[in-house]
């Protein structure tokens, strides 16, 4: 078969290459080129967090296709539909090629010097006036490169000194970070994708991996079709491809994950499916956990979660009978009720069963965006870089020495400002300059009517740095045209800690510039200085920025010092921390080393250093328990249905890229709403009818699809700007991770047209 004709739209997961437990995942090389490339350039996918290694084909200075890299540990040559076709977005004729500024109400083209001068003039005025750093907000992404985040982080923390910096990673994987810190002391996924090769059971907690990390799903399917296949559990209110494949599917009532986990943990304890030696040696908190979960007998859990008791028992047996369990957790948990407590409960399951840090046994608190891990590592999400603890004066001092600035400059007097609070400050008028890079909040934030009101404020100076003129750019005072994947060099790290180097293959269009160059230009013009009066930022290109980051990460869990550009060129993907973390059962919880002193899982209240030290964690993991609480918005007589939102295999987020790729656009061109047959009947709706969906905040129209989704629940994909699911969603977030609850609004539907 000619691989370039391989149609990844009709056959998204491709041919099976079955393999047995303990074997190596066979190679299968996928490729798609429109012309014969003259050369191949090393990269990885930037359209999800899986980190599929890709070679970019170049001819006559243009990208002409892609090929999966056979030798890479992540994909062994495979590509998913977005990998195969997505690169064409960069070639789109409507890329931003020059800066835009607002003159008399409209955006007009200008030069870089004018655009940057406007930003710098405004910045200087704000920084030197009363309120200073308090007026700055930076809202970045999970889609730039490590070098760019680190630079932005230093600008924010050591240049301006503002705590108001976060990424859209807050919407995405803030809960992964919080759950990992809470249980194990620092961020960093314990498991490895290689665990798919060794496990005897896979549990997918609110993770539609088949559509969202399709190459990881290929690996799981290949194990399922080989000898000694792993058992599979799916917890999802919808009949996703994962749910259909699973041996046990729990179509849970949205927002009740924690009740289910507490019930499962109770059964694990009661049946004695506990690794007593492991728990005694490597954990603390078991008595409290037992006390909490004892209150979740089977009938209560079945009732709260609206599941069949026999199905819950089968799930417990699958988990309890496994010897090598791999769990993945994603948005069905992170964007739902009690996100951190529920994600932590999955960690508890693995700790109780002693299933962390050995082949086949581990947990992946997944990432979503391709470079979200780096946003968190480098501190562009507001954390301190290198998984340092803002509340630990020694960690702050280390950074002050590294950057040669006063400790007082580095914001550490309170937790960093989370994205939802940054938007609140902008709404209240205290943040007066909001710099948005690589994200499209006018479509992706909850409660869009409110977001538009904020972006329209006269007293808010909005900078948008993007590759297209997005819905958000329409509100900007200055729009900066960025170069993107294939047009710039940098590194990024996937969901199993694999670092890839992505190299520049072609020139960006027009005057578009790499995000790194934009940030460096700003730093230069702002003339940020260190304690000796020398320039704060001395690096000038991706590799010198990376070397600074290596210094910053030294001695921390995400230590990059052994992973040079040279090694990445030679070896392809390399994991920081090795294949698995915590192999000896020693965790990052020492009080001097950990990233957090902990938070109350119910309220989010921060614990003190003293209370952390008093617990003497000394490298043991925390078993944290919390009680189920109902979601903040429940269906009512007026709004009787529950809305969950999410993704489709062919579309990426707000479709700025996939909407411009003919193959992907055509595969899912418009929004829809999924309804259960019984609900459809009750509301007089047939398949294909146009329906109106309304929440207390707004409404959209969409054609109906009748599906086997659980009764009382409707699903809308959030990709479509003109019929955006976020017109309906609520401004509410998890009290610990501050991640918004995108999967829990109350809505009503009615037919408007057959
Ligand atoms: N094709 C594609 N792939 C992507 C992306 C994309 O836009 N398109 N985006 C990337 C990014 S940034 C991310 S974050 C990931 C997200 O990857 P996923 O988390 O897999 O995707 P979602 O569709 O957001 O949510 C997963 C599932 O959660 C279920 N769910 C909703 N509410 C609940 C609940 O209360 N409990 C449980 N147990 N399940 C619930 C939904 O039915 C849905 O099937 O995908 C990444 N990959
Ligand atoms: N209802 C609902 N809402 C959700 C979710 C949900 O499940 N349901 N999921 C949430 C999640 S997990 C996520 S991750 C967010 C995603 O939400 P967004 O981050 O808003 O989505 P994207 O469309 O990926 O926006 C990325 C922007 O960066 C631009 N861009 C791409 N490459 C580059 C580059 O190299 N440089 C620069 N400067 N810009 C670039 C793109 O053109 C695009 O405008 O949505 C969140 N919103
Ligand atoms: Mo995400």
Automatic annotation (TrEMBL):
Recorded superkingdom = Bacteria
The record's keywords, sorted A to Z, are:
4Fe-4S, Iron, Iron-sulfur, Metal-binding
* Iron-sulfur is among the record's keywords: yes
What the entry lists under PROSITE patterns is as follows: 4FE4S_MOW_BIS_MGD, MOLYBDOPTERIN_PROK_2
Q: Which InterPro entries match?
A: Asp_de-COase-like_dom_sf, MoPterin_dinucl-bd_dom, Mopterin_OxRdtase, Mopterin_OxRdtase_4Fe-4S_dom, Mopterin_OxRdtase_prok_CS, Prok_molybdopt-oxidoreductase
Provide the 4Fe-4S Mo/W bis-MGD-type domain boundaries.
Answer: 38-94
Q: What is this protein called?
A: Molybdopterin oxidoreductase family protein
Lineage, broadest ranks: Bacteria, Bacillati, Actinomycetota, Actinomycetes, Micromonosporales
């Amino acid at each position: 078969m000619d691989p370039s004709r391989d149609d990844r739209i009709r056959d998204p997961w491709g041919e099976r290459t079955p393999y047995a437990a303990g074997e190596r995942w066979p190679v299968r090389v996928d490729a798609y080129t429109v012309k014969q490339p003259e050369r191949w350039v090393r990269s990885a996918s930037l359209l999800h967090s899986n980190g599929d290694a890709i070679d970019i084909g170049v001819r006559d200075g243009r990208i002409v296709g892609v090929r999966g890299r056979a030798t890479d540990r992540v994909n062994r040559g495979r590509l998913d539909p977005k990998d195969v076709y997505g690169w064409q977005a960069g070639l789109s004729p409507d890329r931003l090629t020059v800066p835009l500024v607002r003159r008399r109400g409209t955006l007009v083209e200008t030069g870089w010097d004018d655009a940057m001068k406007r930003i710098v003039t405004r910045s200087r005025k704000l920084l030197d006036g009363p309120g200073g750093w308090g007026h700055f907000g930076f809202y970045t992404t999970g889609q730039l490169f490590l070098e760019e985040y680190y630079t932005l982080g230093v600008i924010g923390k050591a240049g301006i000194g503002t705590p108001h910096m976060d990424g859209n990673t807050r919407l995405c994987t803030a809960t992964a970070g919080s759950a990992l810190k809470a249980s194990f002391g620092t961020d960093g996924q314990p498991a490895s994708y290689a665990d798919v090769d060794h496990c005897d059971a896979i549990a997918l907690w609110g993770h539609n991996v088949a559509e969202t990390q399709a190459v990881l799903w290929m690996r799981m399917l290949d194990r399922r079709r080989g000898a000694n296949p792993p058992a599979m559990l799916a917890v999802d209110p919808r009949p996703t491809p994962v749910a259909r494949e699973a041996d046990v599917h729990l179509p849970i009532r949205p927002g009740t994950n924690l009740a289910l986990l507490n019930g499962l943990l109770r059964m694990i304890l009661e049946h004695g499916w506990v690794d007593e030696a492991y728990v005694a040696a490597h954990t603390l908190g078991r008595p409290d956990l037992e006390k909490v979960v004892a209150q979740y007998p089977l009938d209560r859990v079945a009732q709260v979660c609206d599941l069949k008791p026999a199905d819950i028992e089968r799930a417990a047996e699958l988990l309890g009978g496994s010897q090598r369990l791999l769990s993945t957790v994603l948005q069905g948990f992170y964007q739902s009720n009690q996100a951190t407590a529920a994600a932590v409960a999955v960690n508890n399951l693995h700790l109780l069963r002693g299933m962390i840090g050995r082949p086949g046994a581990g947990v992946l608190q997944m990432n979503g965006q391709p470079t979200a891990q780096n946003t968190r590592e480098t501190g562009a999400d507001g954390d301190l870089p290198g998984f340092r603890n803002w509340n630990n004066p020694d960690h702050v001092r280390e950074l002050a020495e590294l950057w040669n600035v006063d400790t007082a400059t580095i914001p550490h007097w309170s937790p960093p400002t989370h994205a939802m609070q940054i938007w609140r400050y902008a709404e209240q008028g205290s943040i007066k300059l909001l710099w948005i890079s690589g994200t499209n909040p006018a479509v992706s934030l909850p409660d869009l009517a409110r977001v538009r009101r904020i972006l329209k404020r006269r007293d808010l100076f909005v900078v948008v740095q993007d590759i297209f003129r997005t819905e958000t750019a329409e509100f900007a005072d200055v729009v900066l045209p960025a170069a993107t994947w294939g047009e710039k060099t940098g590194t990024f790290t996937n969901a199993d800690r694999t670092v890839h180097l992505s190299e520049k293959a072609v020139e960006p269009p027009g005057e578009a510039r790499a995000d790194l160059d934009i940030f460096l230009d700003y730093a230069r013009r702002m003339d940020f200085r260190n304690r000796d009066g020398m320039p704060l930022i001395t690096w000038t290109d991706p590799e010198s920025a990376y070397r600074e980051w290596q210094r910053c990460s030294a001695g921390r869990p995400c230590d990059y010092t052994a992973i040079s550009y040279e090694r990445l060129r030679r070896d392809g993907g390399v994991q920081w921390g090795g294949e698995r973390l915590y192999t000896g059962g020693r965790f990052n919880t020492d009080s001097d080393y950990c990233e957090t002193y902990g938070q109350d899982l119910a309220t989010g209240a921060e614990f003190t250093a003293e209370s952390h030290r008093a617990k003497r964690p000394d490298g043991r993991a925390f078993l944290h328990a919390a009680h189920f609480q109902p979601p903040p918005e429940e269906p009512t007589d007026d709004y009787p249905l529950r809305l969950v939102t999410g993704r489709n295999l062919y579309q990426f987020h707000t479709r700025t890229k996939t909407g411009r790729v003919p193959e992907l656009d055509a595969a899912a061109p418009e929004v829809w709403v999924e309804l259960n047959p019984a609900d459809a009947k009750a509301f007089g709706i047939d398949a294909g009818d146009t329906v109106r969906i309304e929440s207390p905040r707004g409404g959209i129209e969409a054609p109906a699809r009748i599906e086997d989704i659980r009764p009382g629940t409707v699903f809308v994909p959030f990709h479509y700007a003109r019929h955006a699911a976020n017109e309906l969603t609520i401004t509410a977030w998890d009290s610990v991770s501050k991640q918004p609850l995108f999967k829990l609004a109350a809505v009503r539907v009615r037919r408007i047209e057959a």
